[in-house]
Amino acid sequence: MLVVAFIIEIVFVFGFPIALGMYLRRRFNTPWTLYLAGAVTFIASQVVHIPLNLGLGQLWQAGGFTRLPKTAHLLLGAAITGVSAGVCEETARYLAYRYAIKKARTWQEALMFGAGHGGFESMFFVGLSVAITFVFMIFARGAEATSIGLTAEQVAAYWSQAWYNPLLGAMERLFAICLQIALAVLVLQVLIRHNIGYLFLAIGWHALADGVAVTTVGWGWPFVAIEGLIGLFALGSLGIIWRYRPQLGSNVAEGVENDQDTRTDEKVRRCVRRG
Q1: What domain range includes position 179?
Q2: Same domain for 154 and 80
Q3: Residue ranges of the alpha helices (H) in the chain?
Q4: Does 122 lie in the same domain as 98?
Q5: 9, 46, 189, 270 — which has fewest CB within 10 A?
Q6: What is the mean pLDDT of the chain?
Q7: Which of 179, 25, 240, 198 is nearest to 98 (CA)?
Q8: How many structural domains are present in the chain?
Q9: What is the distance between the alpha carbons of residues 247 and 253, in angstroms, rounded to a whole number?
Q10: pTM to 2 decimal places
């Protein structure tokens, strides 16, 4: 049963992002280039994020933070982890909107952009790791563990985990993609509403989701409980996506432009009266 569950997880983490992109393309006619832009943006963010985390880890050791009480150590570490992820990924997303995909200013395009970001993370940052580990463990189960660099305990632990754990892992990828799409929608508001506050809101939501996940893992919560909590963030993310959806068949950008046009007309009328 565990083997079947792993196969389902692997198929899902690779198949769902592609199916989602196909659906968005068919439903909204959004170009695949936006999906690719999301994937490239994720890669670009990690070029900064990974070295940053390594540097923060060295500072963590040098600064003596490892001597903090266990709870303080965990909470501070989770906060730093969450903020570093939020700053790197949301800044990269903003820069992509600002300079690379200048014409992408609609809610529908944000969905495709976010799907590419979250989809690439699912397929290549998580999916490859899961698939390679699974294949490796298949061979390890039928060989001498020490001959391939593993202990018998590691192999036994892998094959003795609950059968539903891989399915929870697949569910986590679904939740993560919901989060990434919501963040793409939030960051888009910076450009169409001319309010940098939305960038900080996206960073905060991202940091909170990651920080809570790290904290609950550190506290040793059951896998089911951790995924349940992450699911709440996914529901909140769906709420964000719904909140900024187009109204009355118009897109968000058009709505903002109409507001700006209205304000411009009012200013012109004031000037005429004064004249």
Answers
A1: 2-244
A2: yes
A3: 2-28, 32-62, 70-95, 107-120, 128-141, 152-160, 165-193, 197-218, 223-243, 252-274
A4: yes
A5: 270
A6: 89
A7: 198
A8: 2
A9: 11
A10: 0.87
